[in-house]
């Protein structure tokens, strides 16, 4: 080991130049991480593949500017030098550096980190007078030479650099080492890869255009990070995340405070930021520092409905009470992501000779992005993925570059991919089983508790469900004084070892994504639909929780956790199970082949088990009800299938007791597993935390209920639950449903947390009234459940194999919890946007003036300054209805209740809104039924939206008889069904015109079906459009 020195030239927060000297030690042996190494290097970790044709060393400038090009998995054998990684850290910031570190850790990418600055013969000290760029290039070249010689020239080494002088200087020095530019490397070594070449051209063009803006300052400069940190610590500045109002994107945003970062004790609410200048180049999602304005300059949020896209003017007298208002003084962390934009038309571009255009993002909260491209004409009316590179104070707009083209705007597949990208849902290829290394369940391979012959196990799921996560069993123990209740969950962790490629992809996805017409599974289909799924009549691995209960009081006397092997005897659906409980004639598929005597005997045994299970579940629910458990459910619907299992309609369904029975058993299992893992790992267990909501969030619920004559007590979850149970209007059941939805909207989001991050007394789950709760029962579709399964196995001492990894620390688990929370929220937004897409596609080709499908009954559930928010049960839609338009006219009704626009005024009250015109006064009250017309408001650059218009202040009378026998096609799946049918017909016609039918790019890449799927839709409509996406996280 050789000791030397490294000299750093730094600049302090006050601008002073500092010279820092540090000791630096060089070693003779540094891991090379090559499979061809013959020098016995200590290569502990990821190795470069043996089948590589060459190794590539990107120069520092290439890594800094073209890192995203090097992230293509097709580019293999990339050796990142320590010099390049340090340059990224210092010039690009923490976020980009962490992205590079994750790339190096990912075993799916064939790249490694070479510590050249610690290798004695690869290290280069900086020479006097040598520029930093020249020194960096010499360091990378020296590392490439050492690597080539270390491996005895077994493979050629390519150094990629954008420095022309470096190419000339080093090209002829060593045989076997080639110095080329990035463009030459891509064209000569990877000519078949068009995507990396296109991305390189886009980034290169953006770099050439960088700095060509004028010198006139448009925004104030951001304060340095060290000044911001000091100001946040002292309380002068406030740190938070910027959230732009999508309805007033140009004028209104709020900074949502981050708990521990707020040192201003007088501030307990969000901070309002008005106008683009006050936002100071901050983009939606950025972590910013704001400085409060004087109280005399504080403003209120707009309370009026925004009519149309891009409307930012707030009518006078329609603002809320003044709230803390500030301006952005600096960016703590940029959180830029991939954005989908639409290029302007020729008419919208002033100069087509310029390569720089302003592209409009699909997300209205994002400012226009200046793109340098030569394909502006060809990509008109196309959706294009772009990334922001910079936003200088001299530019009105951020600069960026294009990444790839999604397709023509308006096409179904393009719009679906847009939704996925806008929510950061990036799906990679799923691992598949193979003859060489197949997934299989060898029942005799390990010791498990065998329940196949001793227990009657059955599942109860939605009709047609394929990925069965859970099964149940219940029996009376000898003596009759005790019962045994058991929940058996698919043992996914047996097939998905921690750190495997399948585990890494499942962790990245974190959940199964349910869209209106498809789903993207978290696990490969061979696992989710076969080996892990607890299907009937086959042996399956399970992780079981079994309780011995007092037969009279249902008190838990004993609990057992462990791995089991089960064979489910019956795969029931909800309607069949309820029919058996009701004593109605029902045909159980598993019993159809038996003789009548044997069939009757087994049917009686199954019915008895269901009755016992229902009895137990009632007691469990009663225990939680006494603690204050809330019931916050939306409108439930069920899918109607034809003989080929295609969805033909969605009809409202009556809630069945068996739904609550199964849910109660799952809640019971989740609760007891949470107790076990927290008791064993008090600082590193993954729990589901649902904090109590802030009381001010209940204002709308309390006021709306008061308008109907009900009193809502929100002091505790028990008081709230009792109040909601009493707030029932026998004439209109929708009133109670809407009140429960308002209660759901007031809830805080339920989040995954590590127990070491919060005090133990704060682990309480508000909605379920349980002191501890987690997710254990759905490991096929939730990665959090996979983590909990591993924690439970560790708590029971079941994983003693040498290969088993150490338990994650509290910090690592908290990072994972934040990742899962983020992905769950993305899944909820994706699901909501997908549904809205199909709603618009369904109504787009219908004439709103003549088509009866465009007229529906709506219920008023909120009053605004210039309109109403209504819910339409027929389609499960929510939307805004205006009673005052842009021209200043108001809605007026005639004697028959029909509405028309006339000159007049609007008067808003807490429980109603009135318009006054020459024909009289028209009043719309909370929970009032009105007739609404639905049409589509098209947008070229953004998503289409539904426009609602009041036709009459009387309830809509449907032309179809209400008591018509048979299911009536309605609801959101009807929209999905028709849109999918039309899209498929168009696609088939296009494929027929081409030379043959080929699977889509998405089907080839992910092996995922695009056909409507019962389970996906049942999951998708569990929370109807009634619920806001922010409220979805409040569920258990």
Automatic annotation (TrEMBL):
SMART domains: RNB. Its cofactor is Mg(2+). The keyword RNA-binding applies. It is found in: Cytoplasm; Nucleus. Transmembrane segments: none annotated. Its main location: cytoplasm. Residues 448-798 form the RNB domain. Its EC number is 3.1.13.1. Belongs to the RNR ribonuclease family. PANTHER family: DIS3-LIKE EXONUCLEASE 1, RIBONUCLEASE. This is DIS3-like exonuclease 1. It comes from Muraenolepis orangiensis.
């Amino acid at each position: 080991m050789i000791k030397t020195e490294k000299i750093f030239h730094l600049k302090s927060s006050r601008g002073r130049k500092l010279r820092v000297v540090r000791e630096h030690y060089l070693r003779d042996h540094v891991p090379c991480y090559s499979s061809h190494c013959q020098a016995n290097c200590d290569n502990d970790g990821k190795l470069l593949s043996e089948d590589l044709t060459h190794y590539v060393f990107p120069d520092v400038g290439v890594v800094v500017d073209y890192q995203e090009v090097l992230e293509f998995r097709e580019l293999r054998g990339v050796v990142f030098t320590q010099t390049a990684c340090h340059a990224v850290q210092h010039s690009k910031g923490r976020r980009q550096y962490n992205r590079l570190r994750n790339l190096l850790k990912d075993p799916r990418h064939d790249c490694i980190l070479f510590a050249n600055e610690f290798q004695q013969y690869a290290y280069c000290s900086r020479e006097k007078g040598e520029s930093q760029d020249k020194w960096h290039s010499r360091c990378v070249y020296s590392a490439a030479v050492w690597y080539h010689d270390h491996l005895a020239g077994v493979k050629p080494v390519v150094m990629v650099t954008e420095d022309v002088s470096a190419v000339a200087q080093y090209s002829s020095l060593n045989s076997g080492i080639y110095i080329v530019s990035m463009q030459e490397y891509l064209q000569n070594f990877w000519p078949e890869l068009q995507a990396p070449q296109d991305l390189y051209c886009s980034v290169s063009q953006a770099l050439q255009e960088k700095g060509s803006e004028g010198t006139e300052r448009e925004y104030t400069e951001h304060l340095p990070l060290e000044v911001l940190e000091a100001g946040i610590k002292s309380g002068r500045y406030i740190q938070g995340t910027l959230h732009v109002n999508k309805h007033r994107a140009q004028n209104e945003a709020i900074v949502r405070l981050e708990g521990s970062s707020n040192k201003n004790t007088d501030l307990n609410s969000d901070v309002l930021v008005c106008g683009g200048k006050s936002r100071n180049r901050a983009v939606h999602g950025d972590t910013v520092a704001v400085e409060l304005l004087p109280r005399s300059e504080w403003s209120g949020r707009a309370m009026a409905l925004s009519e149309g896209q891009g409307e930012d003017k707030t009518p006078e007298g329609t603002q809320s009470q003044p709230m803390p208002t500030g301006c952005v003084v600096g960016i703590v962390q940029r959180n830029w992501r991939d954005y989908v934009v639409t290029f302007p038309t020729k008419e919208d571009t002033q100069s087509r000779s310029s390569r720089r255009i302003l592209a409009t993002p699909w997300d209205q909260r994002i400012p226009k992005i200046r793109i340098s491209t030569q394909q502006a004409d060809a990509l008109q009316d196309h959706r294009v993925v772009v990334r922001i590179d910079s936003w200088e104070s001299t530019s009105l707009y951020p600069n960026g570059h294009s990444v790839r083209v999604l397709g023509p705007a308006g096409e179904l597949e393009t719009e679906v991919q847009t939704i996925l990208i806008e929510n950061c849902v990036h799906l990679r290829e799923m691992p598949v089983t193979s003859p060489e290394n197949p997934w299989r369940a060898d029942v005799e391979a390990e010791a498990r508790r065998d329940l196949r012959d001793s227990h009657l196990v059955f599942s109860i799921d939605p009709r047609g469900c394929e990925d069965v996560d859970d099964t149940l069993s219940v029996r009376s123990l000898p003596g009759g004084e005790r019962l045994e209740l058991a929940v058996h969950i698919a043992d996914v962790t047996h097939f998905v070892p921690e750190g495997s490629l399948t585990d890494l992809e499942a962790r990245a996805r974190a959940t199964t994504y349910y869209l209106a017409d498809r789903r993207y599974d978290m696990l490969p289909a061979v696992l989710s639909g076969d080996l892990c799924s607890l299907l009937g009549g086959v042996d399956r691995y399970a992780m079981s929780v079994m309780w011995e209960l007092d037969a009279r009081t249902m008190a838990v006397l004993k609990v057992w956790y462990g791995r089991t092997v089960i064979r489910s005897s019956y795969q029931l659906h909800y309607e069949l199970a309820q029919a058996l409980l009701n004593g109605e004639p029902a045909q159980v598929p598993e019993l159809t082949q038996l003789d009548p005597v044997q069939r009757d005997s087994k049917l009686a045994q199954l019915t008895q088990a269901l009755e016992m299970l229902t009895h137990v579940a009632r007691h469990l629910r009663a225990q939680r009800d006494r603690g204050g458990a809330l019931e916050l459910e939306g409108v439930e619907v069920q899918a109607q299938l034809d003989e080929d299992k295609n969805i033909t309609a969605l009809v409202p369904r009556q809630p069945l007791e068996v739904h609550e029975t199964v849910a109660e058993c799952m809640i019971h299992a989740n609760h007891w597993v949470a107790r076990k893992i927290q008791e064993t790992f008090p600082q590193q267990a993954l729990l589901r935390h649902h904090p109590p909501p802030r009381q001010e969030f209940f204002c709308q619920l309390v006021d709306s209920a008061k308008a109907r004559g009900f009193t809502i007590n929100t002091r505790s979850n028990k008081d709230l639950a009792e109040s909601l149970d009493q707030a029932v209007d026998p004439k209109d059941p929708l009133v109670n449903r809407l009140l429960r939805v308002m209660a759901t909207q007031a809830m805080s989001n339920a989040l995954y947390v590590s127990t070491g991050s919060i005090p133990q007394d704060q682990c309480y789950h508000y909605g379920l009234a349980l002191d501890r709760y987690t997710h254990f029962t759905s490991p096929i579709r939730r990665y959090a459940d996979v983590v909990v399964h591993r924690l439970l196995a560790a708590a029971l001492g079941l994983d003693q194999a040498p290969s088993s990894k150490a338990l994650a620390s509290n910090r690592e688990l908290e990072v994972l919890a934040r990742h899962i929370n983020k992905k769950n929220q993305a899944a909820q937004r994706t699901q909501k946007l997908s549904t809205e897409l199909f709603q618009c596609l369904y109504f787009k080709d219908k004439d709103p003036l003549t088509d009866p499908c465009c007229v529906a009954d709506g219920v008023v559930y909120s009053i605004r300054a210039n309109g109403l928010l209504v819910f339409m049960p027929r389609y499960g839609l929510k939307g805004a209805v205006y009673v005052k338009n842009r021209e200043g006219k108001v809605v007026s009704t005639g004697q028959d209740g029909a509405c028309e626009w006339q000159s007049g005024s609007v008067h808003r009250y807490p429980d109603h809104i009135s318009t006054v015109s020459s024909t009289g006064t028209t009043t719309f009250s909370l929970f009032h039924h009105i007739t609404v017309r639905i049409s589509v408001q098209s947008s070229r650059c953004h998503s289409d939206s539904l426009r609602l218009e009041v036709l009459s202040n009387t309830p809509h009378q449907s032309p179809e008889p209400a008591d018509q026998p048979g299911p009536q096609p309605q609801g959101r799946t009807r929209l999905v069904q028709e849109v999918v049918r039309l899209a498929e017909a168009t696609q088939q016609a296009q494929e027929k015109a081409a030379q043959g039918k080929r699977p889509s790019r998405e089907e080839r890449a992910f092996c995922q079906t695009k056909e409507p799927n019962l389970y996906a839709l049942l999951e998708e409509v569990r929370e109807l459009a009634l619920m806001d996406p922010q409220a979805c996280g409040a569920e258990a």
